[in-house]
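User: My instructor asked us to take a sequence, write out its structure as tokens, and then describe one feature of it. I'm not sure where to start. Here is the sequence I was given:
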Amino acid sequence: MSSALQSITLRRLAIATVVVMGVGYGLAFLYAPEDATEGFAQKIFYLHVPLATVALVGFMVAAVHAIRHLRTGDPKHDARAYVSIHISVIFGLAVLLTGAIWAKSQWGVWWEWREPTLVSFLIVFLLYATYYPLRYSIEDRDRQARYSSVFAITAGAFVPLNFLAVRLAQPYIHPRTFSSSGGLPDSMLFAFLVCLVGMALLWATLVWFELDAKATSGNLKRIRRALEATT
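Assistant: Let's start with the prediction itself. The structure tokens for your sequence are:
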């Protein structure tokens, strides 16, 4: 795909992201009713849960790219794994912040260590936060890429296991939105799904933008080295 076509496609993806997120959060605030128990504070659910869902899926996407890198040795898969983790870690930080805001409004505390849902996500977040010092402690680029891929695969396998453990654990006070005992009303579910799609599009847009920026930076460095070699 040419750079011009990539730019047009990225622009269209960004526009679609803005439209879907605008519709989603318009529905969340104007169409979906307030929760009878939590009140207006429940609206943060439409941001918090999509962020968490997309972040965890993004970590597993990174694992897929890492597997492809180890199988093919193609550095583009290493770059995709790195950027997927990078954006997902940013989303994960937003999950912790929005979760703390919600907890303060509902429980009167910023954090509850007895709640397995909170602690498990924090463990996943801290696990992936160690990806950066591991990666940049290795100077050789080939070894750096291989070790980073092994980390991404191992950590990626931990994500669904961690999720399963949380679902099987007895919740302390954190609500379980999607459970066998019931779910969201149709209006809330519809708004949530649109917000989830918008968040997924935002993740994809940011990943694509960062990969494009890294490719452009690499091309500029190669041109600079070529010019220096001819002078």
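For the description part of your assignment, you could build on this observation: The two ends are 32 Å apart (CA to CA). Try explaining in your own words what that tells you about the chain.
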